[in-house]
């Protein structure tokens, strides 16, 4: 697996990142351990987690695997802060909330630092300066080697990056063939500040695998009452047409749809890594088999055209 620097920073990450959102909820410990093993053996380094994943179980699992399944030095830990494990309020970007969540994450992960600490979506109840103060404390103390943001719009990222007395190296946003909204303002903003993008849901919340064509498998996320609203926006209309075009192109290239979708994404400007998640080790193996070769120009042009943002 290839590696690339995050923007203009010295932080190097694998072009695919392992997301742990399903750990502790849909993915049991043994399967999570196997996922981590497969990922690192394939050359993957970037592992993304958060306190809210599995109500804290994802961090606890990952912490148990480090030093056993994989050495701490072999992984780049990207951790989202400022989110609570339980209760109605999931977001807390206050100084107390952020630093408390970081200390808790470090304890569960069994490490004295995270490689990339991500502030969550802007908290309307907390001034930006307070959020940046907490991020600066983590950065200056060495508990966070690099600082990033998560789900900030372009102007929000620019405001934070222009205000912070430390570098903000990344914005963690949704980006795929069926959701290219980051190109409107996030991409220009991160480029202006020498930063990069971590792309979550790079397979369009699962639809770019082609498994939802014509039906919704009962065992899929779309077939779950909990996850159906998450997947549903991409099952019809324009996203459906994009998926059909992708599957047609992939078939002509003798590729699986997810391979072509990831190849397209990983050669977009400013994308440092695509965060992929899986419910089973077998699913992850299929994703990791994706080659890093670029998409041929004629195919890229067709995919660009069919998925282009509407004015």
UniProtKB/TrEMBL annotation:
InterPro entries named among the record's database cross-references: AKR_Detox_Biosynth, Aldo/ket_reductase_CS, NAD(P)_OxRdtase_dom_sf, NADP_OxRdtase_dom
GO cellular component: cytosol
Domain NADP-dependent oxidoreductase as annotated: residue spans: 16-291
A Pfam family hit: Aldo_ket_red
MF terms (GO), sorted A to Z: oxidoreductase activity
Descriptive protein name: Aldo/keto reductase
Species this protein is from: Arthrobacter echini
Lineage: Bacteria, Bacillati, Actinomycetota, Actinomycetes, Micrococcales
